[in-house]
Amino acid sequence: MFYKLLFSYDMKNAHVISIGNELLIGDTINTNASKIGNYLTESGFEVSRGFTIPDNPHIIRKQVLRSLKIADLTIVTGGLGPTHDDVTKKVVAEIFESELVEHAPVMEHIESIFKKRGFSLSASNREQAMIPQACEVLFNKMGTAPGMWFHRNGNYLALLPGVPYEMEYLMEFEVMPKIKTVFPEQDVWVTEYFKTAGIPESTLSDRVGSLEEFVANGVGIAYLPNPSGVTIRISANGNTPEAAGGKLKILRSQLNERAGDYIYGKGKNLKLAEVIGTILKEKNLSIAVAESCTGGFVANEITNIPGSSAYMKGGIIAYSNEIKIKTLSVDADDINREGAVSKTVAIQMADGVSKAFNADIGISTTGIAGPGGATPEKPVGLVWMGFSIQGYNFALKAIFTNNRLINKERTAMVVLECIRRQLLGIQGTPYELKPHYP
Amino acid sequence: MFYKLLFSYDMKNAHVISIGNELLIGDTINTNASKIGNYLTESGFEVSRGFTIPDNPHIIRKQVLRSLKIADLTIVTGGLGPTHDDVTKKVVAEIFESELVEHAPVMEHIESIFKKRGFSLSASNREQAMIPQACEVLFNKMGTAPGMWFHRNGNYLALLPGVPYEMEYLMEFEVMPKIKTVFPEQDVWVTEYFKTAGIPESTLSDRVGSLEEFVANGVGIAYLPNPSGVTIRISANGNTPEAAGGKLKILRSQLNERAGDYIYGKGKNLKLAEVIGTILKEKNLSIAVAESCTGGFVANEITNIPGSSAYMKGGIIAYSNEIKIKTLSVDADDINREGAVSKTVAIQMADGVSKAFNADIGISTTGIAGPGGATPEKPVGLVWMGFSIQGYNFALKAIFTNNRLINKERTAMVVLECIRRQLLGIQGTPYELKPHYP
Which of B42, B70, B84, B245 qualifies as a FRET site for A256, CA 20 to 30 Å off? Predict the structure, then answer.
């Protein structure tokens, strides 16, 4: 891992406390702590410590008291549910010597959720609308457990539910605005994520270099690899977003100069399928997919994007040769001669699906996802990907890994990145795979 | 979250320390802590605390000293790499007042790795073979950073690299055997996971009850909800795996008696699609899917299972009405009259796909995944699911959430669980949804 000068000395200090035996035992992976770390870092905090503690009132009390003393801001997740193990609220109410009183808007909200689902309200659900008087409610539109915001002697404490999307909603729409209000003088960190696809981390870092000449004085760069591509993270601090962003200018332009063709967009959670969607909408083009080895993964990625019905015509999951022939007009003789995992079949599938769905672009996948199905000539990980772009047909061949799920993910990345490059007129293919023509 | 008597009082106590700025910032999700938590829990420890701390020698020193005093066993990951940020080894060598000396077998191993990759060895790579005299080496076959095992006054400390598969290798093949040697009298914990679908956590726990009469004396039960179902975890300790397993007998049979119909199988990582696959293979039946709102998610779940090509004929992702009519023989008049999100269209899609793919079972989804597409009568989250099981046709209607991705996941769970119940002749539908007939 390659990290430079992440924290400066005058930053405010934050603690993240994750409550739950299931986290300590390892039944649940603590994704909340990372998400919260991201939010706090971007709003200028040094996240100096993370704690994972059990559902034990005594331990919760001790840790919250300690963090409240040391940290400018403490975020606590978990233990706000309706069961009797959920003790966080009670413990914190005691710390603030504050009574629990019913909060009418929260009660109304809980009732409306239950009414909508057709369930009746239990006593423990009603209990969730009881709020310590000492706090401000962080109204949780996504669920029944409200968040809470406390302060003492200039130190702040937020309690958030452990359900990831509820926590995230509250961080984004309740905690972040509060932070801006109570820490107005805070240096902000501006972080930008550049997402790449179809280039290995080592090649990318060779191309970009360490950029050491630009990395100093509260400016940093990091490479974050994962199966769907490498993310480059750059960050800088300053009094204002503009001042911090200004420091990134040269880094940003160097990045674009050195690796621009590989960067499909900016934003930590940006998906390649979203970028493709934007391009397709701009160019008023439609797409359809024919999947064998990816079995729906590519279509699922495309349809995960809200509004994708505007350009996604649909797809065929053609696991059997019979369906490839019948629905996608693949030539039975070609299957017999070259096999279903072949250039010819890949191209015919892409061409066939574009015609069957009356789409401008057809893409296809056929391969040996594994663990079974390999032959001496066709190993696990071999994938042919077919493209039919307004009648321009070709295929790419790759050999990925021994892992079925990673093979699906990699295939989807290569297929989508190839489409991106074609639509934008960018030279070259992902991983510099050689194009094969009919 | 509902956890009972997870830990008994005479258990040894473990701390997990995760080192790395990237964890605090949230660029990396801390999967290591969960994995280690699993290992330690199964080998009889109470994991009482997790700490995430920065790459800072002073803070590392303080935390390691503290844990070494409190915890019987401390596992530290991270900070053992070749860069100058990796300071863990030096700090711990200082704590043990121990000199670093070159370890010949480790040096040989590092050299051979570099030779194989065709790289030359840098000074910082050589540095990795320098080991504190006070420790035993945990030989890392998977990488260049060796693990280390220390002890002081009956307290033990392991340093492991942060790379997940290297950490896992060392836990499994080096740390676990050491634990058995130095804590021979330690009880083992046996854990079993029962997976359910189509029943809310609250209903499930009402049905099962707290099982308080059986939960005591080192036996525990926990409910772990997530969007694809609720997992019930039971665990017990004993001198031997057999003794511990014996204590689970009555819990296991009570669970099966009270909630057996909802339990689709055992195993933490078991997937519903895998269970369906096994049943389909046994009954020699095939399946095909027609997806609108789930856009490939259901097919992807089914095809994630190795060997699924034996029963999965394939599917159609029919985002447009045109395709529903053309490929799935849905009646255009019915679409006009009732809309694409309707009972009639769902049933016709399921029936149509079973015929088009010549499959025994056809399933379909059509709904408003969101965030767009809602009307006053058809809110975001409304989904119709169609079933055609050897000619027996019906549909289920549900209203899920406002979240597009969760709606896809929930829909897939309900559809697959409904198929499981039908195939096994289990009464009732997931979430007790009312069946609608043509």
Answer: B84
Contact: A297, B296; criterion CB under 8 Å: yes
Residue B3 maps to a domain: no
| Collapsed DSSP state (helix, strand, coil) of residue B212 | coil
Mind telling me how many Å the CA of A219 is from chain B's nearest CA?
15
ipTM given for this complex: 0.83
Alpha carbon B374 to its chain centroid, in Å, reads: 33
Other C-beta atoms closer than 10 Å to the C-beta of A119 total 13
The pTM of the full predicted model, rounded to 2 decimals, is 0.84
**Overall domain count for chain B:** 3
pLDDT digits (tens, 9 = 90+) for B376-404: 999 999 999 999 999 999 999 999 988 89
Task: Please tell me whether residues B52 and B133 are part of one structural domain.
Answer: yes
Query: What is the CATH number for B294?
Result: 3.90.950.20
Cβ-Cβ contacts under 8 Å, A300 against chain B: 294-297, 299-300, 408
Q: What is the pLDDT of residues B132-186, one digit of tens each?
A: 999 999 999 988 899 999 999 999 999 999 989 899 999 999 999 999 999 987 7
Residue A304 lies in a domain: yes
Smallest Cβ–Cβ distance between B26 and the set A21, A38, A54 belongs to A38
Amino acid at position B434, single letter:
K
Strands B392-399 and B382-389: antiparallel
List the single residue in A25, A41, A312 with the smallest CB-CB distance to B26: A41
Give me the residue from B23, B26, B224 closest to A22, CB to CB.
B224
Strand order in the sheet with A188-196: A219-226, A229-238, A188-196, A263-266
**Domain identity same for B209 and B138:** no
Q: Residue B33 and residue A26: Cβ atoms within 8 Å?
A: yes
**Same-domain pairing of A213 and A310:** no
> What is the residue range of A237's domain?
188-266
